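batch_manifest entry 22 of 60
target: C-type lectin domain-containing protein
source organism: Hemibagrus wyckioides
requested by: lab member K.T.
priority: normal
notes from requester: please return tokens only, no post-processing; we will run our own comparison against the previous entry in this batch. if the run fails, retry once and flag.
--- input ---
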Amino acid sequence: MRSRDDGSTECEYVNWEKPRNTRNVDKQDPQCSGGDTAWSRCSRLMAVCAALLCVLLLSVAILQSIKLNNMTEERDRLQISYDNMTGERDRLQFSYDNMTSERDQLHAERDEFENMLNYTIQQRLRYFTTKRMGWNEARRECRSRGADLVIINNQKEQENLSKMFIGEAWIGLSDSAEEGKWTWVDGTKITTGFWWQGEPNDYDRREDCAATGSKYAKAEVTTWADYSCETEIHAICEKKAND
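--- output ---
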């Protein structure tokens, strides 16, 4: 209230507001309080934290990628190793199969060779010499064993010899005594011959001894040919089984 110039009194009313309870005011982060400057510092801090988090996540992602890449490389290496081992296994299996086949073949050849050495037909023992020699030497070899070069009397015997004895071999037939008159070592004349086509031809007038299994023959039975008696090939000896 105040006095006016005319002596009257004037009253002024002033609104009064009770101060708010400061305890109800929200507390602020000291670092983020204090106006624009404090808020700027708070924003930078949040940006730094976000950047660090991104770097951390990126690092984790890179490490996982490297780990995955290493695992992929290891998987590929193991796959290559597996493929190589599988190929080696198949190669060994193939080699084993071949060796098994060769073993069986050798067994069969061994049995056949034993049969060639000890084959009895019509009470005659026939065997194949392992040494190559001329006809006269072959005959001496057979005679030293109590035998002589083989005599073939019929087609059945020739067929059996063709099956049992593979390759060229002397037989007990020659025309050394008289050209063109083929005679067995026991002195009998030939009755049935199993000459290959064009044989005997007495090539160069010096082929006087007969062999079976001619390398030029394309048949299984008619395989005889006349050769020079000095030609060195195997021979088939024969003797009676009871001698």
